[in-house]
Amino acid sequence: MPTLRNKVALVTGAARGIGAETSRALARKGVKLILIDLDAEPLKALAAELGDDVALAVAADVCDLPAMQKAVDSGVAKFGGIDLVLANAGIASYGSVMQVDPATFKRVVDVNILGVFHTVRAALPSVIERKGYILIVSSLAAFAPAPGLAAYCASKAGVEHFANVLRLEVAHRGVAVGSAHMSWIDTPLVQDAKTDLTAFNQLLAVLPGPVGKTSSVGPCVDAFVDALAKRKRRVYVPRWVALAGWLKAVVTSRVGDRNTLPHVPRILPLMDEEVAKLGRSTSARNVALDDVAVDPK
């Protein structure tokens, strides 16, 4: 049975949600952790909880390659190297392509795609040296489009294929690469969208079968820890998400569109109206963190 004890893992988006809970689970397995997030206070609190001998917290923006390289270098200096990478940092925007704030759309793409590239680029030399494993967090959204979430869907499809390319490039170096695909998980990202937008809740309500259901964080954490231990190529949470991946051509066909199209004329204008009233195209939490990224203290 593969063991994680004494491995060193770099986790982005580690301050909250899946990143934080996976970090706690990895610490219980004897893993040393390099924790990276832009949200400094909860990140520092998590590192303090886990202990200085277990975790190093580095507040950094994944969109800033020099900052990510500095974070990686600090982690390597403390723990000796990096065996595992969980590229988990991600955000979402709200609103139609016609109405979404262009700067917010760009920020989502920057965090979700460039942030993954910067994470991998900075950590890769050490991961190659240790013949390690990289798990890139994509989404069900890579397979199944959702109106009003174009930046999120496009970016998650992008990082899935980034993982596919990276896997080919580093296999001969002894490095394995996986991609993780989750449906809606009860994380701050989903919680904020539900709180901000009745339109988002209505969208979930009309999605077919289990696609609109929200799952708890626990099974996702278990799946991530298992993937990190076994160097899995694909991770699906819940497991039915695998079917959406296998049937992506059907999901994005005219047949697949039939379930969603009748609801778009009602839900999308409502989303745009609610976004306009909010005065922002993303969660209040992300707006605050964007201010930190623009003007770091």
From TrEMBL:
- Which InterPro entries does the record match to this protein? KR_dom, NAD(P)-bd_dom_sf, Sc_DH/Rdtase_CS, SDR_fam
Domain (Ketoreductase) ranges: 7-187
Where does it sit, as one GO cellular component term? membrane
UniProt-recorded Gene Ontology molecular function terms: oxidoreductase activity
One Pfam family recorded for the sequence: adh_short
- Keyword NAD among record annotations: no
* UniProt KW keywords: Oxidoreductase
**Keyword Chaperone found:** no
What the entry lists under SMART domains is as follows: PKS_KR
Q: What is this protein called?
A: NADP-dependent 3-hydroxy acid dehydrogenase YdfG
The scientific name of the source species is: Rhodococcus koreensis
